[in-house]
Amino acid sequence: MSIGSTADWDGLREVGRVARLMLESLTAQVRPGVTTGALDDIAAGLLEAHGARSAPAAVYGFPGHVLISVNDEIVHGIPGPRRIRAGDVVKIDVTIEKGGYVADAARSVVVEPGSATAHRLVACARAAFAAALSVARAGVRVNQIGRVVEREVRRRGFTVVEGLAGHGVGRTIHEEPSVPNRYDAAQRDVLTEGLVLTIEPMISTGSPRVVQGTDGWTLRTWDGSLSAHHEHTLVITRGAPIVLTGAPA
What we know:
249 residues; alpha+beta; Creatine Amidinohydrolase; 4-stranded antiparallel β-sheet; 3-stranded antiparallel β-sheet; 5 helices
């Protein structure tokens, strides 16, 4: 969506605030022994407390309140009885709807004691996101986001996974434009002031190939390599973008 009114700003800031609080609360609970289902139960309580709902469940029928993916699972992991273990890389992906507005954010957590590779991978996803923010300006082509994400990921010795991208957001989960994490010459859209979208590097320590799990939802790395995911919802301006799901200014 593109912001067109004060009501849009108010609605997006509120849903972004709730998504940030949920992401912070859930990642703080990631520890050895906790099940992904227990984390989802916490998410359900937070949604109810804030008068929000899970957008993936409402729009696509996802069987959970948040997406929780572990190790080689890149995105769309279904919460359940799996217990988190020391050394795991856990990705929490929160997409919520409140008052007719949608925000989307994700973070990767290394469960200590994690490997040096796991820590470098998660740091790389964050750095790629930061690099993308530096070019996300009105008047810039969307494909420049993919260019800098891919450059940063390669520079740090990791791989951008194929076929997964950021996207427009605001009124529903997936809107135009697609925001690839690699340079795509065919993506010629130009960022416009007030455009709401997500930037979300999804990377791996190995193969770029993605396979779907037998549950019909979970997307994994083809070779079983570790993956990381970092995402925020933001508003494009003529200067630095406004990160709706980030820490308050």
